[in-house]
Amino acid sequence: MKKQTMGIHHISAIVGNPQENVDFYGKVLGLRLVKQTVNFDDPGTYHLYFGNGLGSPGTIITFFPWAGAYPGKVGDGQVGITAYAIPIGALTFWEQRLQRLNIETKRVTRFNETSLQFDDPHGLHLELVERAAGAANDWIYEDITPSVAIKGFAGATLYSAAPVATKDVLENLLGLTFIAEEDSLMRFRSTGDIGNIIDLKQTSMGQARMGVGTVHHIAWRAIDDQDQVEWQELAQDAGQYVTEIKDRNYFKAVYFREPGQILFEIATDSPGFAHDESLATMGEKLMLPAQYEHLRAELTQKLIPIQLPKK
Questions:
Q1: For the chain, how many structural domains are there in total?
Q2: Predicted local distance difference test score (pLDDT) of residue 266
Q3: What's residue 136's pLDDT?
Q4: Which of 88, 126, 151, 169 has the fewest C-beta atoms lying within 10 Å of its C-beta?
């Protein structure tokens, strides 16, 4: 039996001003800022992580805020739409909440599901879709209670420069199952209960440009270190150029750019976000990896201060 990923571990995107990012994902969507740290490859830039109250794999969206940077263009070789799962019956709540906050929304139906589509302040395409599967999110913000709160990812829509080749990677490397086709989309499912539905666009969305408002990469789940090594070997055997294992403190990661030019990562579920600060307090202060701790004063001066949402 071929290996199968449980689905999405996290999605990482490029945005603009970090306070605008915190205000939208924390105050508008009611997600928890589970970690504020820096980009390990560029420590002068924040790396902000938002998820459910526990910071569980499959709920985490991460951001590199580049204040004042050039806007990107969503297109081939990127995640085009990031989809969040909400409880059954919660769509109207979110439609009313977003409209009350002057955020334009649109209802779209595909594969017999109705989703609510909208953009974040920096141009990322998002949608909410009702799903029965997945644990409730007990992180409460204002009137966003567990009965309506975002559970985690529903999935993502991939824009590929080579859809046939991307389909092969999804099915024969990552172990996703093809379940349906509608118009220009093919739908695949992984084994997890969240972050498990991937739609692949079969027609071109035009040339992409990396920048503010675009997704940098999508990460798939590996259970632990051994599982990740096996995924790394499988990807290499499939002809992918895979990086060495990189320690990201909260997970370990390997990367490869699949033939459709989307940057894929495979990330471990462990150790998670509460190993360097408590579950109760995680996300409240800037956490630096050991190699940058001696630069704390310098980095603190460089990074734009942010204020967290008050519960």
A1: 1
A2: 98
A3: 98
A4: 88
Alpha-carbon distance values, 227 to 220, 221, 250, 297 (Å)? 12, 9, 16, 38
Could you give the count of Cα atoms lying within 13 Å of 217 in the half-sphere of its Cβ?
A: 15
In a domain, 191, yes or no: yes
- Give the integer Cα–Cα distance in Å for 8 and 157: 12
105 with 95: CB under 8 angstroms?
A: yes
One-letter amino acid of 6: M
Domain that residue 188 falls in: 8-302
Q: Tell me the average pLDDT across 130-143.
A: 97
Pull the structure tokens for residue 26.
């924390």
Mean pLDDT of 122-126: 98
Q: Where would I find the H helices in the chain?
A: 18-22, 91-100, 163-168, 225-237, 296-302
For 158-175, give the secondary structure using H, E and C.
EECCCHHHHHHHHHHHCC
pLDDT value of residue 311: 72
Confidence of residue 1 (pLDDT cuts 50, 70, 90): low
The b-or-e profile of 175-196 (16+ CB within 10 A means b, else e) is: bbeeeeeeeebbbbebebbbbb
102-111, 211-220, 301-310, range with the lowest pLDDT: 301-310
| Structural domain contains residue 288 | yes
Inside any domain, residue 3: no
Query: Whole-angstrom Cα distance, residue 41 to residue 13?
Result: 15
Average pLDDT, the chain: 97
| 254 within domain boundaries | yes
Helices and strands: H and E segment counts in the chain: 5, 16
CATH number of 45's domain: 3.10.180.10
Beta strands 152-159 and 106-110, pairing class: unpaired
Cβ contact 245:252 at 8 Å: yes
Q: What percent of the chain is modeled with pLDDT above 70? A: 100
Report residue 28's pLDDT band, with 50, 70 and 90 as the boundaries: very high
